[in-house]
Structure formats: C-alpha cells, structure tokens
Amino acid sequence: MAQVTVKQFAETVGIPIERLLSQLGDAGLPTKAADDNINDQEKLQLLTHLRQSHGKSNTDVAAGDPSKITLQRKTHSEIRVPGSQGKTKTVNVEVRKKRTFVKRPSRAEEERQQQEEKNRLEAAQREAEAMLARQQEEAARQAAVEAEKAAKATEATKDSKPVKPEAKANEAIASERTAPASSSPKTSEKTERSERDRSDRPRSQGKPAPKTQGSHAHSNKDNPAPKDAKDSREPRESKDAKESKPPRESRDNRDSRAPSPAAKKPEKTEATPAAAPAAAKRAPKPVTTRLLDEEDDDIAALGDKKLNKGVRPKKTTTTPRAAGGKVGAGAAKDSKAASPRERDDRGNKFDRQEVQGGGRNRKRTRRAKPVEQQHGFTKPTAPIVREVALPETITVGDLAQKMSVKAAEVIKTMMTMGVMVTINQVIDQETASIVVEEMGHKAKLLNENALEDELAKSHSHDGEQHPRAPVVTIMGHVDHGKTSLLDYIRTAKVVESEAGGITQHIGAYHVELERGSICFLDTPGHEAFTAMRARGAKATDLVILVVAADDGVMPQTLEAIQHAKAAKVPIVVAVNKIDKPGADPERIRQELAGKEVVPEEWGGDTMFVNVSAKTGQGIDNLLEAILLQAEVLELSTTVDGPARGVVIESRLDKGRGAVATLLVQQGTLRKGDILLAGQVFGRVRAMLNEVGKPVESAGPSIPVEVLGLSDIPSAGDEAVVVPDERKAREIALFRQGKFRDVKLARQQAAKLENVFSQMEAGGTANLNIVLKADVNGSVEALADALRKLSNSEVRVNIIASGVGAITESDVNLAVASGAILMGFNVRADSSARRMIEEENVDLHYYSIIFEAINEVKQALSGMLAPEIREEIIGLAEVRDVFRSPKFGAIAGCLVVDGTVKRNNPIRVLRDNVVIYEGELESLRRFKDDVAEVKAGTECGIGVKNYNDVKVGDQIEVYQRTSIARTI
C-alpha cells in the first residue's frame, strides 16, 4: 500500500486528526504532524496498541488460542416440602454454576508490555512538552496583539473624553486577562470580539467612574440579548475553572502572560493575600480555555506528573457580565437553568458582603468568595515510641493493647522470631520485653509485687486518730472454761451450740460495758486449731490466758503463751474454776512463773485474776483489768476513710452464698463498698452483727458478717476496700495466678519427694480423703491434723477440701481417686446421696474433731504391715546319723530344750553358726510318727532336702508370730 499522510489516514478512519495524533503518541511512534507520512509498519504497530488497550492479545488471536474459558454447569434436584393441608409437594430445584478461567500472559509478554508502556509514556511526555511550548508561544503572540490593540483604543478614548487612571488600570488588566490560552481559531475570534466590547465599555468593580447616558445606551446597543445569553455562562464557568485549578496552573498562566508589561502589577496584587480589598475587587476573573477533545486528558495528566508544569485546559469562556452587574434576558434564562450545585452555591446572609455598584450608585449584595476550610491536623511523620509496662506474665492480646497495635501485628512479629502464639496465650516478662523492643518501643519491667505496693500506698493515708475498743483474744487449753467465761460475760449460751461441749470455731463478739466496749475473739483450744489460734493472736491487742485451777498448765496453754509472745501482745491470766474443791491458784502461778509469765505481785508484768465462770466470781475484776491494760496501750486508729480488716472465719451458706466474718481494724466499712479479701472480691451486699441483725456500717474493732463476695476467702486474709471493681479484679487475679504458681511448684516438689521416698522404702500405702467442712478454719485445722498422722509406711493424702455441703462433683472425685468422703458438720445433698449409693462410696460424718482424727488413725493402723516376730521353741542335739532309703540321712537327736514340733521351720547350726534353714520333714519316736517331742526325749529328725547332717550339729526349731501395729 502506498504511503499516505496522517491527515488522509484520519479522514479514511473517520476520527479527528488530534485524536489520531494522540493515539500514535500512545502507541510509542515518533511525533508526527498532520502532513507527515505513515507507513504500513506504523499502522500495524498502532493497531496492535489499540487491540491491547481493549483487552485483546494479538498473539492469541493469531495462534487461535482463547484467552479465557468459561465453564457452566447445571444440576437438577427435587425436594419435598410440606403443604398447607398436610400434603407434601415436590419442588424442582435447578442449580447453575459458572466458572471462568483466564489465561495469564507469560513473563516475556509482561516484560514486552512494560517496555511498550514505558516507550508510550516517554513519547507522550515529549508530545506534551511540544504542545505546551506551542501553547505558550501562541499565548504570548496573542497577548502582544491584544496589548497593542488596547493601547490604540486607550489613545482614541483619551482624545474623545478624559478617563480616570483606575479605569486605565482596569482596562489593561482586562485586556491582559482575556488573552486566550488555546490555539483554536474559533476561540480566538470569540476572545477578540470580547476584548473589543470591553475596550468600548471600560468599568471598575470597586468605585466605578460616572457614565454618561450615551455610553450606557451604546453599551445596550452593542450587546443584544441573544448574544449575551450565550456569553453570560462564561464568567461563572471561568470562575469555577479558576477555583478548581491548582496553584501550579495559575503560575503557568502568569508565566504565559509575562510579555504584557501593564499586567505585572495587578498580577502581584492579586497573588498577595494581604492586598487592599479595593484592588482585589477591581481584578476581573481570568479567562481560561479547555480542549474539546477528551482523549487528550492522558497527555495533560502525563505532563502534570512528569514535568510538574502540565495544565489540563478548560473549556473556553468569554464575555463577562455587563457594566453595573446587569445581564441580558438570555443570561437570566441560563442562570435559571443552572445546575443544582450552582444554585446551592449562592450562600446565605452571613457570607454576603455589600458593595457599591450600578448605574445609580445603589447598594446590592454579592456573595463573598468562600474561604477554603482547612483543618490544622498534620499527619505525624516520626514514629511514636511508647513505654510499655510489663508484669511478670501477660497475654498477647494485652501486650498488643498496651502498644496500641493490633494483636495480629504482635503475633506476626513473634512468628518472625520463631515463636507460634495465639491471642490468648500467656508469655513471660522476658519474651514480652524482646517483642516490645523488636516493635520499636521501650519495655518497663514491673516488680512482682507492684500491684500490692500500689494498693498499700493507696491505703497509707494519715487521718485523724480516734480511740478504739480493744480486741481481746481468749486462749487456753481445751476444756479449761474459755467459752464459759465469755458466755458469762455476754450473758448468752454459746457452749450449748457447740458439738461435744468444746469450741471448734473461732468466734468474734462485741460487748458494750459502762466504761467502754470490748471485742472478744474466742479461739478453740484443741491442738488441731493451732493456725486458728495464731490468727487470733495476730489480730488481737490483748490475750486472756485461761488456766483451770484444778488442771494446771497444759500443752495448749504453753502454745498460747508462745503465740502471744510471737504477736508481742500483753497477757492477762485468768485462773478459772476456783470454786472447785481441788483448785490451787498458787500452783498455777508457780508453773506459769517457770514459763516466764511472772505475776505482778511477784515482781513481774503479768496480771493474774482469779475467776469462776460458773458463779461469776472475779468477772468484774477481769473486765477492769482488760480496760486498764487497754488504756495503757493507748489504742487509736482512723475512723474515716476506706476500711481495712482481717477475715476471722468464712463459710458457705446455701441461701446466702459466701459469708465471711470480718473484724474491722481501720476505717469504716459501709454497705456497697468494693471489698478485696485475699484472692476474692465483691460488693458488700449486706452486713450482719454477731447476733444476726443487719447493720449499714461498721467501725474499728467491730466484727461483722459480710455477704456478697465472689468466693470463700481464706481465714486470716487481709481485707481492704478498693475504689473500683476493676482494680479489685486485677489484684485478685494477680493473687490467684501467684497462688497457682506456688501451688504447682509445691505439688511438683511433693511429687519428687514421693518418688525418692518410694524408691527408698519400696512404696507406701496411701489413704485418699475428700474433706468437706462447714467453715474454712475447720477445713484447715482438720486437714492439718490428718496430715500429721502420716509416717514412712502410710500416708494421708487430702485429694480435695472445701467449704459447704458434699456435692456430686465431690463424689465423682472420690470415685475417680478411690478416696473416702468425710463431712465435718456438713451433709451430702440429694444428688450426691444417690450417687454415693450407686457407686458404693465410703462416707463418714463427724461433728467432733477428735472423733474424726481417731477414726482415721484406726484406718491407718489397719493399713500398716504387721510385725513378724520369731520365737525359738525347741533345741535338739545330733547324737548319730542313720540312712533311710525313703528320707535319706536321719539325725538321731536328743531334745535338749523346749519342744520340737513337726512342720515348723528349723535351722541347722554347726559350731553355733547357721549353715542351713529349712523345715522338718519327718519326726519319729521308736518308728512312730509323732507331732511333737518334749525335752529330754530322743527322736529321729529328717530335714527336708538336706543330707549333710553330722554328729554334733544342733537343730533349732522356731515359729513366726504376727503382731498388729498401731500409730
């Protein structure tokens, strides 16, 4: 085919010449003009580019291979659905599935396409640069022509009538601003016609010069309505184009208008934000142009991206409004038909300003130029480094929250470090610090007891000190009359409610007297309640040591003295039962003096009072001694502020839940406070005094029962009031985790000890017990007493212990571990009893502690291996040896001592050395078998499986006896 020009090829194809030139540039061909030739190879390259831009591959079409394959599949099935009248009907179901597979281009094809794209971009860049250069040259030429015309028009006007200087400036600005930015001939004609109209009608937007009637009529004559209807749209479009155009475009437009000397000063005034308002109002809107061909948008964008000076031209706008703000009928019609955005852009009364205008100097309102709203926030560029506080253990989710990142980021970082974790997995402090430093933050290692220290600091407030009632603990040996003494003081009958007449629970009581109030703590005297007595001594201010005058100093009496000295509290000795005939108070004083408890009358510092809990003798003297000792101690504490106390006892009530007996030591405990007691917490729902009446608050030295805790606290735990529930839960969980770690470590150590002990002793017998009691103190005392029964051969293993009734889970645990169930002052519920009968579990109920201990002791005694004792019952001396065809060697013996019995084990001694152990096979006297032979009688003895008997040997006969052992 012969070569044709680009213009002819465009006419053949039927597209504009500008679009064809743009497509040739996109295809990577060299820049061509309209009169340049185009050959077949360039046409083929253009065709290939157009096919690829529309998603087609030239190579695939040539090869005949499809670029994508679509698979469709239909499946038919039937389902049965119930009808309205109970009948079922069949519904046909058709399922259509469609899947498309796309053939991806090869790597070589991709590289080729990338190279073609790069060449296309470079060609487009060169084309954009050339086009921008042509536009700038054309704009400079048009600006020079218009400036020359404006100068001639100004001289002609100067000859006809005088004009103010500001009108000249406005005329120069208008002539400079209306220079066309496009090389289109049609646009240039419109622009020239608009400039002629402006030169005939100079005006000012600030304070316009007075106009004659003739000039006004001439203006209306030269601007008919139909023409203004077309041109009135242009100022609004020009204004929108100016506002939407970036500052870079404005700079380019100013550069393109640089040849005009008269326009430099107004341009500077318009660009400066602090210019005078009048000058800003005088500046007319610039006239912008826009290419009509939408295909050149890519070229403009490429020029803007590569050269930072590309311009996207706008549609050409020309004739501005007429003088005085009046427009023709066509403009009014067009303004009514404006878009909704233009109508909504009119503003309100707050953003309008008054300006002077019009032929008759009347006021009118015009919308001020909207101020661009910009926020003051700037995106931070520097990385944020946080200080992350790390406890001993932390979950991955909590660590991510502390660093203000997503948990997935933390997991991803740990995966790169070679650790696979989940969001709820707990990691240690060292691993967490490595992760924090890896993610660019700073790790702050918290102390193990940081929460405890913070809690202690929050309660270390110094308030006004007020005197408080003394806390008195009554201690002594079992059955010495401690509770009876307190019973007489309280005028109540507490002893009758205790099983066996002995105290098995620690009790707190508040007694009001004439001279003041006293808080009594009654502790058990049994040896199993050592820990309970120690808690009473720690929480007390004064110890009353009760000693029976007819019994003397006993082991628990000495233990009470040790507890009081360890707690560093004074002792008041109450010598009880002085009304009995055998009472000897002086002997009690002598025995206690030997234990470093010296009476005051003997030069010591301990007060002794003789009392009788039965007759009431000396009770007043005892109370007087208690109050006197309290005055000497000068007991005081803060009444206001959060409460702090100690848990005396705790139990599980079936109707009320966890109930804790709390002794307030500092502050005031009120209903509704958040209480933290050891590892449990909760809101105080109700408080009861020692007689069961509800109270709203409790001050220092007042014992109360608290309801509302989440679980049963341990007896002896410290109870404090915290400000919020979140803090209480955090500290409680921390304590639970710490207790769990200690418990696991203790169990592991116990397992290792058991392994070594079993290796040494060959195994021990275990008695597994599941223990339930009514209060926490009883569980602790009974479990400790049972564990003390263990020895090297038998061992008591407390599988589980708790407070409350025996439940089904306790029975399941006993069945699984082969344990016995023990209930101390509790019973099994209905479901547990049914399971106990089904599984035949050994269940024991107790109300008195020493009965439970004795029965367990008997069970352990039965598990002990019996003791085997050997007893020599006879001794025979060999005098001669005979041979028997049936038994072999027969020893003719003389019984020297005791009795020789058949089938008993024997030992053969030679020179008083045991050479054989066996048993008698034959015992005869004068050829007759006999059962036994007494001393001084001859007999024949046949030793089983032994024929090496010699004259002079001794045969020792003995028997084994089993003796049962006890613990």
Automatic annotation (TrEMBL):
Residues engaged in binding GTP? 476-483, 522-526, 576-579
Keyword Ribonucleoprotein in the entry? The reply is: no
In terms of SUPFAM superfamilies, this protein maps to: Initiation factor IF2/eIF5b, domain 3, P-loop containing nucleoside triphosphate hydrolases, Putative DNA-binding domain, Translation proteins
In residue numbers, the region (Disordered) covers 98-378
* Cellular compartments annotated: Cytoplasm
Q: Where is the Tr-type G domain?
A: 467-634
Ranges for region G-domain: 470-618
Q: Which family is it part of?
A: Belongs to the TRAFAC class translation factor GTPase superfamily. Classic translation factor GTPase family. IF-2 subfamily.
The protein's name is Translation initiation factor IF-2
To which species is this protein native?
Answer: Thioflexithrix psekupsensis
The organism that produces this protein has a lineage beginning with: Bacteria, Pseudomonadati, Pseudomonadota, Gammaproteobacteria, Thiotrichales
